[in-house]
Structures are given as structure tokens and as C-alpha cells.
Write a structure and sequence with these properties.
The protein is α/β, with parallel strands linked by helices. It contains 13 helices and eleven strands. The strands form two sheets. The protein has a seven-stranded mixed β-sheet with strand order 1-7-6-5-4-2-3. The longest helix is centred in the C-terminal third of the chain and has 20 residues, at 254-273.
């Protein structure tokens, strides 16, 4: 029996048909390169509809680049960047911030992936001391790597504290649309309106083929980013194929519909597994992920049929992700496999 990849990650899903159509349409004829094309201009206008007229936005290939290059533009090698211990920036960027920025990542343990003022306050110190890494940025992820969601009020409190201390707030928004759908608020209401300075905005996990964006809510902060992007090998020559995806994505609520569906499937998955013996859901299901503890001896057995990540070996805590293309039948079949695996293979 071949391994099924559908609950391993929303990165495992395909491309939304509307996005594919947009790419095919953009493939007709010739277009000027490096972002001076009409597709990119239209995509930027779409971003301004959702995030505000005073933003600067730049397209890159992937989320790692969006995070690291966006931060490189606002932080120096003598700075520190404060983030959650579980942050993608810390765990899954292969030391990219340290390599490309040369900065220090200060990681903060959390229970649910969310930073608070009380948690970061001990690390906001040493300003002006030439012997100490200078705190410059607090980076949060929305939703967090544990699937939890910051409310607008929580982000505002963080932003006010960060700005009061002369620092900047960065947001890794690889799944920002899932957070927006969960909270039932607009994209701007959980970013620029509540004090986010720089945003990495994702699309790949929610229906795009490839492409992410770096959004600066203060244009002064985007100074020199065109050069940083080029040096970072992220200036796409045929940028129209990224831009046309974002134009389509941000039109007719496609971003929202995809995210709402993924969140709904995760909630359905939670409802169906929460009462399964030996399954303990360990984080609030607020976006498109379910984190659960299952018997250690059952993990490999279940992975023979469904691929998924073990997020924490100690639990072991496993992560099951839903996407825009997950169906109710997919969820039902997966839960049935979980029940059978735990009953037959593990519990005797």
C-alpha cells in the first residue's frame, strides 16, 4: 500500500485550478522581466487593497527567503532577533538568519508557540552596551508553528512594547490567511493595523505553486530591499509567473475560501479523533493543524500508511495538517486508519 501524503503538510497539496489557469494565461506572448511587467503591477495593487495603500511589497520564490531577506533589511549582524523556540525561523531555516544576516537568534520557550511581553521582556536589554548583541526585532508567527492564533489585541500589546523599546515587529505569515479566516478579520487588521512592521506573506501552503511576498508597512524600512533581494538570489526574471498567482489569489476571496476550508477540515479532524482512545490533542485547533500525542509504538505503524511529521519526539507529539484540497472523505478515511492502527497494532 503506497504511503498517503495528504495530512503530512499543506505543502503536499497541489495547486488550486484557478492559480494554474492564471499561470497558463500569463504564459502567452512576451513580457518585460524582473517585475516591470503589468502582472506585477496589478498584483501590487491587489496587495494594497488588502494591506493598505502605503505599503511596499516585493515577491520572492519561497518563505525562507521572505523571512530572512525581510529581516536582513531591518537588522544588522550585531543585532539580536527574538523569536519563539518553536519558530520556523529557528527550527527549519537551516541557520539561514545566522548565515545571511550574521545576527543572534534569541529563542524563547513557550507553551503554545505564542510570545508575550512577559516572555520576551527578560531579553530586551543591553541597549548601547558594546559587549552585548543589540535587540532589534521580535519575530512572531501567525498562526504559530503549533497551530495557535494571535488575536489582534495580543499583537497590538506586543507591538506597543516592541516599539516603545525602539525595536521592530516582524511577522512570519506563511499561513496568515488561515489566521485571518479563523479570526474572521481582514488581513490588514492582524498586520499593519496592529503594529506589524514587516510581514512575510505566504501563498504556497494555501494554493499557489510557488511564491511568497515581503510586505513593508513603513516604506522607509524597505530602503535598499531591491538590492538585498538581488544579492539574496531571489529576484525572479520571469516574475509575472509569481505575480499572476498573487493577483488571482487575492481576488474573489480565493485566499479566504481556501483557508476557511482547510481550517474547517482540521476542526472536523479534531472532532473525530478527540474521543479516540490513546489520542490526546495537545494544542487548541485554531487553524489548519491538529497536534496530538499517540502511543510511541504506533507512530511508525501509522506512518506506513500516512506520512506525517513527529513534531516532538518526547511526547511523541505528531502533527496532522489539512489543506484547501482536503475533503471530508479524506478525514473520515484517515481517522478510521488511526482507529484501526491503534486498536489492532498497539492495543491488542
Amino acid at each position: 500500500m503506497p504511503v498517503n501524503y495528504m495530512f503530512g503538510s499543506d505543502n503536499h497539496s497541489g495547486v488550486h485550478p484557478d492559480i494554474l489557469k492564471a499561470i497558463v494565461s500569463a504564459n502567452k506572448g512576451y513580457s518585460i522581466a524582473y517585475g516591470d511587467d503589468e502582472y506585477t503591477k496589478r498584483a501590487v495593487r491587489k496587495f494594497r487593497e488588502h494591506f493598505g495603500e502605503d505599503i511596499d511589497v516585493y515577491f520572492v520564490y519561497n518563505g525562507t527567503a521572505a523571512n530572512i531577506l525581510g529581516l536582513k533589511n531591518i537588522a544588522s549582524s550585531f543585532n539580536s532577533i527574538i523569536c519563539a523556540e518553536t519558530a520556523h525561523l529557528n527550527v527549519h531555516e537551516c541557520c539561514g538568519p545566522e548565515n545571511f544576516i550574521g545576527c543572534k537568534l534569541v529563542t524563547v520557550p513557550t507553551q503554545d508557540g505564542k510570545l508575550t511581553v512577559d516572555l520576551i521582556k527578560p531579553f530586551v536589554k543591553g541597549f548601547g552596551d558594546q559587549h552585548v548583541a543589540q535587540p532589534r526585532v521580535v519575530s512572531i508567527t501567525q498562526p504559530t508553528e503549533l497551530g495557535t492564533v494571535y488575536t489582534p489585541a495580543e499583537i497590538r500589546v506586543l507591538a506597543d512594547f516592541v516599539h516603545k523599546n525602539g525595536m521592530l515587529l516582524h511577522m512570519d505569515g506563511a499561513r496568515l490567511c488561515n489566521a485571518s479566516a479563523s479570526l474572521k478579520v481582514g488581513l490588514k487588521e492582524i498586520t499593519g493595523d496592529v503594529g506589524v512592521d514587516v510581514l512575510s506573506f505566504g501563498g504556497t501552503k494555501n494554493g499557489l505553486m510557488f511564491g511568497e511576498a515581503v510586505v513593508f508597512f513603513d516604506k522607509k524600512l524597505s530602503k535598499d530591499f531591491v538590492f538585498i533581494r538581488k544579492q539574496g538570489m531571489q529576484l525572479a526574471s520571469k516574475m509575472r509567473f509569481i505575480s499572476t498567482q498573487f493577483e488571482t489569489y487575492l481576488s474573489n476571496d480565493l485566499w479566504l475560501r481556501n483557508a476557511e476550508h482547510a481550517n474547517r477540515m482540521a476542526r472536523l479532524l479534531y472532532e473525530k479523533v478527540k474521543d479516540v482512545p490513546e489520542v490526546k490533542v495537545v494544542q487548541r485547533v485554531e487553524s489548519n493543524a491538529v497536534f496530538a500525542v499517540i502511543p510511541r509504538e504506533c507512530v511508525s505503524r501509522l506512518q506506513e500508511k500516512y506520512f506525517f511529521h513527529v513534531f516532538d519526539e518526547e511526547g511523541p507529539v505528531v502533527r496532522w495538517m489539512c489543506s484547501f484540497s482536503t475533503t471530508e472523505k479524506d478525514v473520515e478515511r484517515f481517522v478510521e486508519t488511526v482507529r484501526e492502527t491503534l486498536a489492532k497494532k498497539c492495543l491488542g
